[in-house]
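Hello,

Our lab assistant flagged a job as stuck in the queue for most of the afternoon. It eventually completed. Since we weren't sure the result was trustworthy after the delay, we are filing this so someone can double-check. Below is the sequence as submitted and the structure that was eventually returned. Let us know if re-running is recommended.
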Amino acid sequence: MKKERDMVQFGDSRKNKILNPETESEWFTYMLKFYWKELIGMNLLTLLLFLPVVTYPAAICGMTNIIMLRLREKRVEFWKDYFAEFRNQFFRRLLWVLILTAAPLSLSLYPYILGFEKGGSVVLLLAGGVSFLIQAYMFPMMVTVDIPVAKAFKNSLIIMAIEWKTTLKILFTSGVLILLCVIFFLYMIPLVVIILLSLVQLINSIYSKKAIEKWATKDVKSQ
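-- returned structure --
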């Protein structure tokens, strides 16, 4: 694929944009056009690996690693690269994702305790949104940058604020997509099974890639 991209230098400019993506939208089109089978396969594999529940962070890291390698135009050995990141820092990543998942749920209980039942839903939505945005940066960062999970969390929190325009893009694309899937879950089941997870991680990875490389250049992995 890399050779094919290098060979395309002249001709239809629209074709050049597809084979030589530069903007975020061009990368999204490129990945869907040339790797849609891989995205669907990863979605199904990741769903299967979710079954023990505790493997959720590891499976998302495996998927995100493949996507980030594609976006960085690195050589991909699917099974090796997927499961290498699946195993990497397994328990530390699990701990941090549990914290990020439990925090919104815990915060939403306070309004109920204080008697503001409707407030609990609002707090859950807001805190859950912040948790989602942190993870939107954190997963691509953990598979791209050689740093501890705690530092990836801290950096993600900082980048989320500094790169607020990128954060809004993530919120109004993959964030809205997930919200719609929650609201209309029964109608969205086919999308969830076929490609939702891959689609969300692809969107998050495309948007967060430049921000991660900008703020963590010296620690970016070579492969």
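-- support follow-up --
The delay was a queue issue, not a problem with the job. The result is valid. The chain has one domain: 34-219. The CA atoms of residues 116 and 173 lie 31 Å apart.
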